[in-house]
Amino acid sequence: MASNLTGLRKSRRFRFGSRELIISVTVGAIIIHYGMFLFFPILYGLYGSFFDWNITTSNFKFVGIDNYARKLQDPVFWKSLFNNVYFTFFSVLLVTVLSLIIALSIHSVKRFKTFFRTVYFMPVVTSLVAASFVWKWMYDPTMGLFNQILDMFNLPHVEWLTDKHTAMPSIILMTVWKDAGFAIVLYMVGLLNIPSSLFESAKIDGANSRAIFWNITLPMLRSTTFFVVVTNIIGYLQVFIPIYLMTKGGPGTSTFTTSFMIYDAAFDYYNFGEASTISFLLFFVILIVTFAQTALTKRRGGFDQ
Amino acid sequence: MKREKSKQALLYLFLFIGVSVMIAPFLWMLLSSFKTNAEIMRVPFTIFPEHFKFSNYAKVWTEVQFSVYFKNSVLVAVTRTALVLYFSALAGYVLGKLQFRGRNVIFILILATMMVPWPVTIVPQYQLMVWLGWKGSYLSLIVPAMFSSFGIFMMRQFVSHVPTELLEAARIDGAGEFRIFHRLVLPLVSNSLSALAIIIFLWTWDDFLWPYLMIDDQSQYLLPIGLAFFSGQFKTSYDLLYTGATISVIPVLILYILFQKRFIEGITMSGIKG
């Protein structure tokens, strides 16, 4: 009898000891948390995109694919996607190329390496909200720093954020300033990881520095470049804060991006159904980009660190 | 050799031009915060303020309530960072070191959530907060952020470096899993936790849209919302605006310069290990 009892106790402890407790508490919390704050909202948003859904009037009426049909025919939606691509393409290109050049330069100089790294990384730790404001004031047509500098050289003023041709480039310029440091540091780490024997043997073979760059440095940095490009594309397709704080999508629709359009529909017009529709269209675009990149890397065997 | 020297000189020239471009906005902001509004508006501009006007700071700090926003931001950022660190480490330990059915499915699902763009969730989450009655409360900023997929992912990587023999030894000594986690695992990953803390703190400190949508009461504003609200109110008081921006940037920047190695390692570890 007694031995039976200890056996029972033992097996119970085996079934539910501290190991089982920590697993069930943690997994339970994860399931509840993600279920409630992520999976439910995503599904509810998808569901709501088929409804005329307004949070202020508590309207929730099924409209089928009307929202999708209307948005796909809306030239402003396509303009916003175009603006996304415009912003993303040039920001990614400039951030990647400039940070590679700067990282190579820092790598090549003999002194002040830490100083350069510290300074170039400063904007990365700076609040994007504050940076957007400061740049907006620097772009001010009369008292902003930029036009005052143009004045010094007797050059004509630029309207920066208030001209539909320069508004987007101005935001891209700010973004490059803000984000380059992150990629610079990644490239510096990548450069340190290239075995120096590769460079030495190339030099012995008589390769010039241009050949070394194209045949050794750049290929060896491929996974860094891939990471920088992929994460930035996905992030920049969702750009919002600088747009909202600097131009509110204007002038006209020249900086009207898709996430700004979602914000505008949801929180200026409280049209939650339409906002959800646009957000799923954007999600779809981002998924396609992600899959294209995965397919591309699989084929070229990249991302191999 | 001469060629090498001139090449070095060119590189330094290039890098120092870059340095001045990088720090110009910071200097412009800082110097403007000590000017009078009239001096900021003046054409042609001055670089250094004619007189350093420190009263801008007193005004922004008390009258415009930046002291309140600052305290609120610290409170929310510290609470959220502490919770995210604890739950990331816990989930990292359970998903990384303990074997059970469904473990990989859960981990893959958590990873997949990192791909969901924020515009997809923000609208229904807003509705959810209205239903829960959390809109207008810090609960809406803290509870939905308790688990961070990124944090779990990072901590699982770091916990996996803890030697399994060490955990086994503690188990043989009769330590329970909670004790092992708190007394053994947490101290061992404290370095990685401090790196994660920097990232999460910066993200929370800079978080704009969600608190902007959730918090209505001005006495509960966080710094970024305070700054945005204030820039709408005092459209032409650039002296105060620059001061407000400086107050929200400089403390973090000072921390960064003091601990720059930690900051850079912490922030870029997401890129290197990813």
Automatic annotation (TrEMBL), chain A:
It is a multi-pass membrane protein. Its main location: membrane. SUPFAM superfamilies: MetI-like (SSF161098). It is found in: Cell membrane. Residues 81-293 form the ABC transmembrane type-1 domain. One of its GO terms (biological process) is transmembrane transport. One of its GO terms (cellular component) is plasma membrane. Keywords: Cell membrane, Membrane, Transmembrane, Transmembrane helix, Transport. PROSITE patterns: ABC_TM1. The chain crosses the membrane at residues 21-44, 85-106, 118-138, 180-199, 220-245, 277-296. The keyword Cell membrane applies. It comes from the Bacteria. Belongs to the binding-protein-dependent transport system permease family. This is Sugar ABC transporter permease.
From TrEMBL, chain B:
One of its GO terms (cellular component) is plasma membrane. GO terms for biological process: transmembrane transport. It is found in: Cell membrane. It comes from Cohnella pontilimi. Coiled coil: none annotated. Belongs to the binding-protein-dependent transport system permease family. Its main location: membrane. Pfam families: BPD_transp_1. It is a multi-pass membrane protein. PANTHER family: ABC TRANSPORTER PERMEASE PROTEIN MG189-RELATED, ABC TRANSPORTER PERMEASE PROTEIN MG189-RELATED-RELATED. Keywords: Cell membrane, Membrane, Transmembrane, Transmembrane helix, Transport. This is Carbohydrate ABC transporter permease. The chain crosses the membrane at residues 9-31, 74-94, 106-126, 138-159, 180-205, 240-259. InterPro entries: MetI-like (IPR000515), MetI-like_sf (IPR035906). Residues 70-259 form the ABC transmembrane type-1 domain.
